[in-house]
């Protein structure tokens, strides 16, 4: 019997096979680090008198706690400032490469690494952050780990893991012009639920997936965790190779040829069997948006807010009732009638150059609606910001009435100055819409950059077709 992509990468990194229910021991090629989940790991090494096993396979950046304006001034939040300075001191002490705030390669941990060519097919990549699944877009086995596991990888460059189950999600057919990568993953999560991928590594397959750019593939894999999956992967192909070629950490010359030859073997065998298979008809997709308080509570933008009374399952009905109350909505109201206060375009899900181009193309020649309080456009990395400014996208955003910011996690989560106030409603290109995610009492609707841009123009949740 053949093997899946995930199984091949797993086998290539197996240090020791477990037995009798014991986990396997895997070699880890790359660990990404940031200020939130690393302090305890560094302290653990310090107390044990240890040094990193392979310090050249660790790399850090500052993202979650970073301000996106006035970055040259002292951080006004004492907790955030302490976390950032602690990371800087730890990296200096242990010799870990760091891209701090203000560095040309600083950015969200899942955005700066691919741009540098650090993320490559067939690698095992970990980080103390759940959205590490982003890197699976390259055919890497990438997943988030806990703080104690971060310390273990630093000390040994290995990790004990039980094998995952495998799931194939086939997105068949050609994606309509008004649908995006974000709509694909929101539709998938709406179908299988936030727990549908629990215990699985998902491999995204099919024509619609193959036609995506690398930025778009990263969007899909990024939100695998929102379906409960351990990781998401897409088999590498010519699109992957073209993206990587010439990047700072990509192989060169003869090593490039050898790497590509290996990367081409990283595909699921025709006779491989997945533990679960899900089929999605890409031709029927369109813009999606969430109405509730988890990423699975999403619907086509043309739909209405659901009526809990019509939901048969008691648990789902109760969740819908709570979500509708928290979000300040009414059952049956058209999603397009929902007025928004703030628009956020950014995050490790949709803060890449393709996303900014998409938003700018829609915003150009328009101005934000008077009812919109603010529009924040936050590139996912400093390199993305520089590229956007080279293309003049920053001018488009500023002319539109948006705020053009420095790179960071920003309003994806309430860990920095970019927060919503209670009952403030946003449409956000980020990945989570839990209660209080963007600030205490915040109300978040997840959508694509295209929908976010159109909403900023009209003031209510809209698609570009509504303009």
TrEMBL record:
Cofactor: [4Fe-4S] cluster
Biological or metabolic pathway of the protein: Amino-acid biosynthesis; L-leucine biosynthesis; L-leucine from 3-methyl-2-oxobutanoate: step 2/4
Ranges in coiled-coil conformation: none
PROSITE patterns, sorted: ACONITASE_1, ACONITASE_2
Its biological purpose: Catalyzes the isomerization between 2-isopropylmalate and 3-isopropylmalate, via the formation of 2-isopropylmaleate.
UniProt-annotated binding residues for [4Fe-4S] cluster: 348, 409, 412
Keywords: 4Fe-4S, Amino-acid biosynthesis, Branched-chain amino acid biosynthesis, Iron, Iron-sulfur, Leucine biosynthesis, Lyase, Metal-binding
Gene3D superfamilies, per database record: Aconitase, domain 3 (3.30.499.10)
Substrates-to-products reaction catalysed: (2R,3S)-3-isopropylmalate = (2S)-2-isopropylmalate
Pfam families registered for this protein in UniProt: Aconitase
Protein name (Swiss-Prot/TrEMBL): 3-isopropylmalate dehydratase large subunit
Annotated cofactor note: Binds 1 [4Fe-4S] cluster per subunit.
PANTHER family: 3-ISOPROPYLMALATE DEHYDRATASE, HOMOACONITASE, MITOCHONDRIAL-RELATED
Organism: Bifidobacterium colobi
Span of domain Aconitase/3-isopropylmalate dehydratase large subunit alpha/beta/alpha: 7-459
EC number: 4.2.1.33
